[in-house]
Design brief:
- The chain is of the alpha/beta class.
- It has one domain: Vaccinia Virus protein VP39 (Rossmann fold, 3-Layer(aba) Sandwich), CATH 3.40.50.
- 42% of the residues lie in helices and 24% in strands.
- The chain contains 7 helices and 7 strands.
- A 7-stranded mixed β-sheet has the order 3-2-1-4-5-7-6, with helices on both faces.
- The longest helix is centred in the first third of the chain and has 19 residues.
- It is globular and about 55 Å long.
- The termini are far apart.
Length: 203
């Protein structure tokens, strides 16, 4: 196997181990999100590939999907993560600005965005795009850290000499916004992850 893939996988394992030392099990939290989304079907979009943690979870379950991120560097890391497990073939990786997605209206049955909202400078603009590309009977699944989860991530970044930057808009505000756009919103949470699922109200 390519040396770069192996080195990246080692970094991935070390990162997971660090989170686990603080009580956050990456695999368990991703599967919690996935479990709350069932059934999963049709055309699937992930917005915010990041380092590919949720993409890996989807691919491991055998789902084929499109994943977009504005950062080519982050997405390259995600590709290496999936390549280690021979799962890259499940994902159509694309570099896109989520404020102006290239997809046609109502292109997807399911749209995921995991631990991305708090990084965004204008999350409502991106949420509008998610609504646009989700079909009439589709669902938008957004997840981000709970208050306890954010505290944990802050502590992890401090141990690394950094700071975890987070915007002022949380999932509660996003849920209220989606409700205002006439979508039906349900929410649930684990210890560290909050999830909201939005769908259009069908009368």
């Amino acid at each position: 196997m390519d040396k770069g893939v192996l080195e990246n996988h080692q970094r991935y394992l070390e990162r997971k181990k660090l989170y686990e030392s603080f009580g956050y099990d990456v695999d368990r939290e991703r599967k919690f999100i996935l479990g709350k989304t069932l059934p999963i079907y049709g055309h699937i979009l992930e917005v915010g590939t990041g380092k590919g943690y949720f993409a890996l979870t989807l691919a491991e379950e055998g789902y084929k999907f499109t994943s977009v991120d504005v950062s080519e560097e982050e997405q390259d890391t995600a590709k290496l993560n999936l390549r280690y497990y021979n799962l890259e073939r499940f994902v159509d990786f694309r570099i896109e600005n989520a404020e102006r997605l290239s997809f046609k209206n109502r292109s997807f049955d399911l749209v995921f965005s995991v631990n991305t909202i708090h990084h965004l400078t204008d999350p409502f603009k991106i949420v509008n795009e998610l609504i646009r590309v989700t079909n009439f009977y589709g669902r938008i699944i957004l997840s981000d850290f709970t208050e306890e989860g954010f505290k944990l991530v802050d502590e992890i970044h401090k141990t690394e000499g950094g700071k975890h930057e987070a915007g002022s808009v949380g999932l509660k505000s996003i849920g209220d916004y989606l409700t205002g756009r006439k979508l039906e919103v349900e929410s649930c949470k684990s210890r560290f992850q909050e999830v909201i699922i939005a769908r259009r109200v069908v009368i």
